[in-house]
UniProtKB/TrEMBL annotation:
SUPFAM superfamilies listed in its UniProt record: Quinoprotein alcohol dehydrogenase-like (SSF50998)
Domain Pyrrolo-quinoline quinone repeat: 5-205
Native source species: Streptomyces albiflavescens
Entry keyword set: Repeat, WD repeat
Protein name in the entry: Pyrrolo-quinoline quinone repeat domain-containing protein
Pfam families: PQQ_2 (PF13360)
Length: 283
C-alpha cells in the first residue's frame, strides 16, 4: 500500500504499488494533512490516521471511507501522528498536540487511552512509535524546543530523562532496529541536523549529521544486513548514510519525501516524490 498527500497537503490518496493505479483519493478541509500513520487492529483491517488543523481523521485505509472518531477529530491542531502495538496485540495511535499535549487513542475504536499526557513546554511537533524486540512499542515525542520525551503508551508514564542535543524545533522522529538488536532513535530539527540516540538508554550516538538541505525527511531501513538512513530535502536529492557511523554512502539520486516501505517478504521498497507530483518506487 502506498499513501501520498499533495504539496498543498489537502488531499490524501492510496495507490496500488504493482499497477500504479490510484485506488482512492479524499480531500481534507481542516488545514490539510499534517502527518499520517497506518496500522492493522486485530479483526479491523487497515486503519489510517491523518493529523490536521482540528485533530485527527480516521479512515479505512483500504477503501478511504471515513470512520467516526469524535474523540480524535476535535482536540485542536495535531502536527503529527504515529501508530504502535500494545502488549496483547492492541493497536494505538499517538498524536502531537499544538498545545503541548500528547494524545493516545485506540486505533480500532478511536477512543482515548487515558488523559492527554503533559510534560512538554511548547508545541509537540513530532511523534513516533519505537518498537521493542517483542514487537510492542514505547513512543517518543519531540517539541519546538528541541526536547524529546519517551513514554510508556499503556500507562502514560515517562521513561528516563529527556533526550536533548538540538536547540531548535524537532521536525521528525523515527526509529530503526539495528542488526545488533538495539534500537536507534533518530530525530531531525529545523536546522536540518540529524541526531541519533540509543532508544533504551537515551545516550547520544555519534556526532550530529548536517544534512545540508532544508525540510529534511528521514527513512531508516536495513538493506542487505546494513543499517541505513535515507534522507531527502528541499534540494530534491536523496542521500544514503551509515546509521551507525553517520558517514555518507553511495551516490545521491533525485527525489523528495523519501519513504521506506516494508514488504511482507521482509524486503524494503523505497518511494520518492517529485516536484511534478509523480511517485517513484525503488527496490
Amino acid at each position: 500500500m502506498v499513501l501520498s498527500s499533495s504539496n498543498g497537503g489537502d488531499r490524501c490518496s492510496r495507490w496500488d504499488p504493482e499497477t500504479g493505479r490510484e485506488v482512492w483519493s479524499i480531500e481534507f478541509y481542516a488545514g490539510g494533512v499534517r502527518g499520517k500513520a497506518v496500522t492493522c487492529p486485530p479483526g479491523g483491517g487497515a486503519v489510517l490516521a491523518s493529523a490536521n488543523e482540528d485533530g485527527v481523521e480516521r479512515l479505512d485505509a483500504l477503501t478511504g471511507e471515513e470512520l467516526s472518531s469524535p474523540y480524535m477529530e476535535e482536540v485542536g491542531t495535531v502536527w503529527d501522528v504515529a501508530a504502535g502495538l500494545l502488549p496483547g496485540g492492541r493497536r494505538f495511535f499517538v498524536g502531537a498536540g499544538h498545545d503541548g499535549r500528547v494524545f493516545r487513542w485506540d486505533a480500532m475504536s478511536g477512543d482515548p487511552l487515558g488523559a492527554p499526557l503533559t510534560g512538554h513546554r511548547g508545541c509537540v511537533m513530532a511523534v513516533t512509535a519505537v518498537p521493542g524486540r517483542d514487537g510492542t512499542a514505547v513512543f517518543a515525542s519531540g517539541d519546538e524546543n528541541g526536547v524529546i520525551l519517551r513514554w510508556n503508551p499503556e500507562t502514560g508514564e515517562r521513561i528516563g530523562n529527556p533526550l536533548t542535543g538540538s536547540c531548535t524545533a524537532i521536525s521528525q522522529i523515527t526509529s530503526l532496529i539495528l542488526p545488533t538488536g538495539s534500537t536507534l532513535l533518530i530525530g531531525t530539527d529545523s536546522d536540518s541536523t540529524l541526531w541519533r540516540w540509543d532508544a533504551s538508554t537515551g545516550e547520544s550516538v555519534g556526532e550530529p549529521i548536517s544534512l545540508g538541505s532544508e525540510d529534511p525527511k528521514v527513512a531508516p531501513a536495513v538493506v542487505d544486513g546494513a543499517a541505513r538512513l535515507f534522507t531527502s530535502g528541499a534540494d530534491d536529492m536523496v542521500r544514503e548514510w551509515d546509521a551507525a557511523t553517520g558517514e555518507l554512502v553511495g551516490i545521491p539520486w533525485t527525489g523528495i519525501d523519501i519513504e521506506a516501505l516494508a514488504r511482507a517478504d521482509g524486503s524494503t521498497v523505497f518511494a520518492t516524490g517529485s516536484p511534478d507530483g509523480d511517485i517513484s518506487l525503488y527496490k
